[in-house]
Write a structure and sequence with these properties.
Elements (H helix, E strand, L loop, with lengths): L14 E5 L1 H10 L7 H4 L15 H4 L5 H4 L9 E10 L7 E14 L3 E12 L5 E12 L23 E6 L4 H5 L12 H6 L9 H16 L7 E8 L8 E9 L2 E7 L5 E9 L1
Antiparallel strand pairs: 1-3, 2-5, 2-7, 3-4, 4-5, 6-8, 7-10, 8-9, 9-10
Length: about 280
């Protein structure tokens, strides 16, 4: 069934999601945090208060699927995560519950495929105060050519000067198997047969796992590991990552804004974007 380009404006019913200390810890381990980050990976270390990684917002802020269902049936083997952004209105608590509403804000015809853009607003389920916002775009191969608007053409690019900071992290061969326990069970990241359908010789790492590795580097390098100083992040995925790859995050700082580029072990760019810090 082809996508429906008139689905722009479709809005999901509110959906409530909650998380616990365990969920936050599992997410942190899923994006590579370890023994040097006990504030994010333990809840009972002496003299250490548990905190939540800012990028956990992309997990806790998953909205209702009603908006995307209005677009039509999507073959997940043809779906690629294009961009992801979030804004925090306050640090994420160790335990919480939010009510989220998702809206389809754009459907664009790229010829070889279609881009679906959504925005999700999440508020505290009890106080109704804003908690975080997410914006996401998905590229669906083979769904273009319907004669629609091509959409924005502005591209994120890393500065041409030498980076101010560079941090390297090693992902694990089983990284995707850990990360998927936080909710994204797409078999593209675990099932070799499904990955082959999508054109890969083995399962690839979740884009949002790479995003989380990058967020850790930004948090510890630019915010002195303080989530209260991390306000927003936006990134565009440029190449798949395979579990076990070494990732290098280059950062360029300009006041309270920073640009970044995450690179695979062969030097190719895999994620490029910006963040807002305080």
């Amino acid at each position: 069934m082809p996508i429906d380009p008139t689905a722009v404006g479709a809005t999901s019913d509110p959906i409530e999601r909650s998380w616990t200390s365990k969920d936050a810890l599992l997410y942190a381990v899923g994006v590579g945090a370890g023994t040097e980050e006990l504030a994010f990976t333990t809840e009972n270390s002496h003299g250490v208060e548990q905190q939540v990684l800012p990028t956990f917002a992309v997990i806790a802020g998953l909205g209702g699927g009603g908006a995307m269902r209005a677009v039509g049936d999507v073959d997940r083997s043809k779906l690629v995560h294009g961009e992801q952004a979030f804004t925090l209105h306050a640090p994420i608590p160790v335990e919480g519950r939010v009510r989220s509403v998702t809206k389809v804000v754009g459907i664009y015809d790229k010829g070889s495929g279609a881009v679906i853009e959504t925005e999700t607003e999440s508020v505290d389920a009890e106080t109704h105060e804003p908690r975080f916002s997410n914006r996401s775009s998905m590229f669906i191969r083979g769904e273009g050519g319907f004669g629609g608007d091509r959409g924005p053409s502005q591209r994120m690019e890393a500065p041409e000067r030498a980076p101010d900071h560079t941090v390297a992290y090693q992902t694990r061969p089983e990284q995707a198997l850990i990360y998927r326990l936080s909710g994204d069970r797409n078999p593209l990241h675990s099932d070799p047969a499904f990955a082959a359908r999508a054109g890969f010789d083995r399962p690839i790492l979740h884009g949002l796992c790479t995003y989380g590795f990058t967020g850790r580097a930004l948090l510890h390098t630019l915010c002195d590991s303080d989530p209260a100083r991390f306000h927003a992040m936006s990134g565009r995925f440029t190449s798949p990552v395979f579990p076990g790859e070494r990732l290098e995050v280059a950062m360029w700082v300009d006041g309270d804004e920073a640009s970044f580029e995450t690179r695979g072990e062969d030097g190719r760019g895999v994620l490029v974007g910006t963040c807002t810090i305080g």
